[in-house]
Amino acid sequence: MNVRKLRILYNRRSGPGRSRFETVRRAVSSAWRGTADRAWYFPADREESDAMVDAAVAEGADCLLVCGGDGTVSSVGRRLIGTSVALGVVPLGSGNGLARHFGVPLDPAKAVAALAAGGTRRMDVGVAGGIPFLVSASVAWDAALVRAYDAIPFRGAVSYALAGFWSFFGYRAQPLEAVLDGAETLRFDKPLLFTVGNLAGWGGGALIDADASAEDGRLELIAGERRDAPRMLAALRRVFSKGGKALPHVLHRTFRSLEVSRPAASPVQLDGELEDLPARFEISVRPSALGVLVPPAPTAPLSDSNLTTPTDTRP
Q: Each residue of 96-130: pLDDT tens digit?
């Protein structure tokens, strides 16, 4: 990708091991040494981050490199929807759902080098109750898990496991109805799993659908009842190879629009963050709404076609 103006937003609070800035700084200086117009952003909070992203768009940046976890990536990506600024992700979090989907190395320095050698693609974006999401949206126990995870003071695979165990026993399911593309109606008495994926997985290596595409103009739904939890848990390893869609008694659908109806409003998980949505809301897809910087094939699971080969911008 020919980058004339590069902006780098670094979240110092993301993920385990928060002292990696020098590693990233050196990698950026090396990989983009021909790009003279570079600027770093260090937001103190969400409001300041939003203002910095808007400034990058107004300044005509070609790429905004986001160094952080899924929450940071999502909040920045939402503001880049419909713009010409490409989103690049240097994964510093514990989930890293978007980075994993596009084959971005989880080592920060390697991620920077791979992105600098890559090109841009357009990816779909999901919208739930008017709020965009890049990776996934969850409504049932898979949403309650997020609240438990936020209460744990450390991050990583162990904290996900603890959050899942803790939230499972406290979760109170409420009936749910879903209408897919105005045609098929699904009803769940006590849903345990109800996740919509835009990309292959939630993060942390856990997959929704290993074969999911970010460019097909469709979203993926996996859903299952609480009564089938023992069978799902017995086959849990499938989540890390084929995805949640391969669990026994789990329903799998692809769709463009989905109407969700519940007895009462409750928080919904969007890219690892809880959002208050009403009892009835719609989930839909915006095809090719966001430009994303990806590594070159074969590092990323993408074909050689449509990749923009980077150009050396050194004078």
A: 999 999 999 999 999 999 999 999 999 999 999 99
The model's pLDDT over 250-302, given as tens digits with 9 standing for 90+, comes to: 999 999 999 999 999 988 999 988 899 999 999 999 999 999 999 998 644 44
Instruction: Tell me if 123 is assigned to some domain.
Output: no
Three-state secondary structure along the chain? CCCCEEEEEECCCCCCCCCCHHHHHHHHHHHCCCCCEEEEECCCCHHHHHHHHHHHHHCCCCEEEEEECHHHHHHHHHHHCCCCCEEEEEECCCCCHHHHHCCCCCCHHHHHHHHHCCEEEEEEEEEECCEEECCEEECCHHHHHHHHHHHCCCCCHHHHHHHHHHHHHHCCCCCEEEEECCCEEEEECCEEEEEEECCCEEECCEECCCCCCCCCCCEEEEEEEHHHHHHHHHCHHHHHCCCHHHCCCCEEEEECEEEEECCCCEEEEECCEEEEECCEEEEEEEEEEEEEEECCCCCCCCCCCCCCCCCCCCC
Q: How many structural domains comprise the chain?
A: 2
Instruction: Examine the fold and report which residue of 118, 149, 165 is the final residue of a domain before the chain moves on.
Output: 118
CB 268 within 8 Å of CB 143:
yes
Q: How far apart are CA 269 and CA 288, in angstroms?
A: 22
Rounded to whole angstroms, how far apart are CA atoms 76 and 271? 12
For residue 91, what are its two tokens?
């994964």
Q: Is residue 153 part of a domain?
A: yes
pLDDT of residue 95: 84
Question: What is the residue range of 267's domain?
Answer: 131-287
What phi and psi values does residue 107 have, to the nearest 5 degrees? -75, 125
Whether 309 is in a domain gets the answer: no
Q: Are residues 33 and 54 in the same domain?
A: yes
Phi, psi at residue 255, to the nearest 5°?
-160, 170
